Amino acid sequence: MNKKILQIKDLHAGVADHNKEIIKGLNLTIKAGEIHALMGPNGAGKSTLSYVLAGKADYTVTRGEIIYNEQNLLAMKPEERANAGIFLSMQYPVAIPGVSTNNFLKHALNAKRKYQGLPELNIAEFLQMMRSAAQELNVSNEMLKRDLNVGFSGGEKKRMEVLQMKLLQPQLAILDETDSGLDIDALRIVADGVKKLHNKENALLIITHHLDLLNLIEPDFVHIYNDGHIVQSGNKALAQELEQKGYKAFVEA
């Protein structure tokens, strides 16, 4: 039996100091080797879930629990969650002027290795690993030399996110509308990169509005999410039905 990577139990959460509950009694279990897709209308709370899992500041859990690899995720700091194998691919990756992509990736990778008790990579070892990974994802050397995401197109930013995933090898990757703003070619490159990373030891949570990405990365489970909780679950056929009928046919009144 595949081990449980993530267990969310009766989760209630919202934005701190706003006194507004956004996640309302969410339950979800993700096991090793599984791909889950979360689909729902704008404002349903999908991105809030991704932020809570990653430990983003300004979000508060008021009730419930999140267990990650038999640990209390809510007791872990954001950097501990990242080093323990949780990765969030953001809808709008942030540009960081003054921080080169090379240095960012090297420090991120070595921070995780240090957390795992492994020796840090030297410059030569890191560059060899990075260039090999970048070549597979059509990430140019020129992109790697530039400041992180500064002047990158939408497709370049998303490829850079997948490159980070490839280097960090997360156990749980959360893709928050990674397909947003991508043309067909960029979407295929990103999807192919993600598929190569997925294996029987890790898991994916894909947050999306569209069937296009799910046609390329076929999910094991599809969940329709509205008003802070899951209203219906199924397989890919549920996503296809949703594409035809729209959210109104599924979400609760």
List keywords for this structure.
single chain; 253 residues; alpha/beta; six-stranded mixed β-sheet; four-stranded antiparallel β-sheet; 9 helices; 37% helix; globular
Task: Give an overview of the whole structure.
- With 253 residues, this protein is an alpha/beta fold.
- Helices cover 37% and strands 29% of the residues.
- Helix 6 packs parallel to helix 7.
Secondary structure elements and their pairing?
Elements: E1 4-15, E2 20-31, E3 35-39, H1 46-54, E4 59-68, E5 71-72, H2 78-83, E6 86-89, E7 96-100, H3 101-115, H4 123-136, H5 141-145, E8 147-148, H6 154-168, E9 172-176, H7 184-197, E10 203-207, H8 211-216, E11 221-226, E12 229-234, H9 236-245
Parallel strand pairs: 3-10, 3-11, 6-9, 9-10
Antiparallel strand pairs: 1-2, 1-4, 4-5, 7-8, 11-12
Helix pairs in contact: 6-7
Kindly name the structural category: alpha/beta
Uncertain spans: none
Distance between the termini: 37 Å
Sheet-strand content, in percent, reads: 25-35%
